[in-house]
Design brief:
The protein is an alpha/beta fold. The protein has two domains: 128 residues, Rossmann fold; 180 residues, Rossmann fold, CATH 3.40.50. Helix content is 34%, strand content 14%. The strands form two sheets. A seven-stranded parallel beta sheet has the order 8-7-6-9-10-11-12, with helices on both faces. Strands 2-1-3-4-5 form a five-stranded parallel beta sheet. Helix 1 packs parallel to helix 12 and helix 5 packs across helix 7. The protein is elongated. The mean pLDDT is 97. The structure holds (2R)-2,3-dihydroxypropanoic acid. (2R)-2,3-dihydroxypropanoic acid binds next to loops. (2R)-2,3-dihydroxypropanoic acid (DGY) binds next to loops.
């Protein structure tokens, strides 16, 4: 990978971003920011990407081979604003010698705070209680209404024990939960939590199941009808990872039929979930709009890291967080 010489490179920023980071891009390149209320359609994205050397991408963008080819041979880097990059076809990028980069680490604590908040939200029926008050149904203190389940002493099953999963475990241990997990690779430090042999065992033993694995071919539809049936009827499912890891129809049926008690979802499939979807009408569901990393601190650092990744690549250097470094010809 050589640095770009001649005219100033074009960087497409697909959504509105922190201005100081756009300014950093503009010091050495021409940033085209798509400052619109809605994400670009695939067609709009292809038009905007034409001639770009870099794309500052977001989860709402489908960066496939067609988008890369529309950008053309200048394209050297696709930098994702986020840790998950399932919206980018990494194989297609690698075949075209295009660097793909992401923002791991800087959002871990914010995402873990939020994941643990969702466990408490589910267990203590926070959203449902809020709706109860707003509807005017709260007349007096009721000893037997809106009873949740104890967080303290319950078992949390974590699917995916990477950075965010283990940071959730730290919080759960601090709250007196028993933590069990399944994960693909051996964690360096599992904080003394119990690694269980199979996903089924985790589902059967957990009072709360929280998902922290990436969306891949293997995890697409990981939680479906059979898996939900294995969960305890009083258990909750928390998804702050990616919507398609859970089969939405199966989850809707499981919640309706009392196979599980509650779901707290930061991500859904489809996303956004249509407002007339049955899940939206259910009391035993909390739905929030993909905000696990949405703190000022985390989002600022994500923006900065995305720009770092772009600036390094266009200067001909290995970016700090390249996900396909071993497939790039750096010569
Ligand atoms: C992430 O970092 O993956 C968030 O979900 C935003 O895409």
């Amino acid at each position: 990978m050589t640095s770009i010489t001649g005219s100033r490179p074009k960087i497409l920023v697909t959504r509105r971003q922190f201005q100081d980071q756009v300014d950093r891009l503009n010091e050495v390149s021409d940033a085209l920011v798509l400052d619109r209320p809605a994400p670009a359609t695939p067609n709009e994205l292809q038009v905007a990407a034409t001639g770009a050397h870099g794309i500052f991408a977001h989860i709402t963008d489908t960066i496939d081979a067609a988008a890369m080819d529309a950008a053309g041979p200048n394209l050297k880097v696709i930098a994702e604003f986020g840790v998950g990059y399932d919206n980018i076809d990494v194989d297609a990028a690698s075949e075209r010698n295009i660097v793909v980069a992401n923002t791991p680490g800087v959002l871990t604590e914010a995402a873990a705070d939020f994941g643990f908040t969702m466990i408490q939200t589910a267990g203590r029926r926070i959203a449902e209680s809020d709706r109860f008050v707003r509807r005017g149904d709260w007349k007096w203190f009721e000893p037997l209404d809106l009873l949740g389940v104890d967080i303290y002493g319950s078992t949390l099953g974590i699917v995916g024990f990477g950075r965010i999963g283990s940071a959730v475990a730290r919080r759960a241990l601090g709250s007196g939960m028993n933590v069990i997990y399944v994960t693909r690779s051996q964690p360096e430090d599992d904080l003394g939590c119990e690694r269980v042999g199979t996903l089924n065992e985790l589902l059967e033993r957990s009072d709360f199941v929280t998902l922290h694995c990436p969306l891949t071919q293997e995890t697409n539809g990981l939680i479906g009808t059979e898996e939900l049936k294995r969960m305890k009827p009083e258990a909750s499912l928390i998804n702050t990872a990616r919507g398609p890891i859970v089969n939405t129809d199966a989850l809707t049926a499981a919640l309706r039929d009392g196979e599980i008690a509650y779901a707290a979802l930061d991500v859904t499939d489809p996303e956004p979930i249509p407002t007339d979807h049955p899940l939206v009408k259910m009391e035993n569901v909390t739905l929030v709009p993909h905000i696990a990393s949405a703190t000022i601190g985390a989002r600022r650092k994500m923006s900065e890291m995305t720009v770092d990744n772009i600036l390094a690549t266009i200067a001909g250097k290995l970016p700090p967080n390249c996900v396909n470094a071993d497939r790039i010809n750096w010569g």
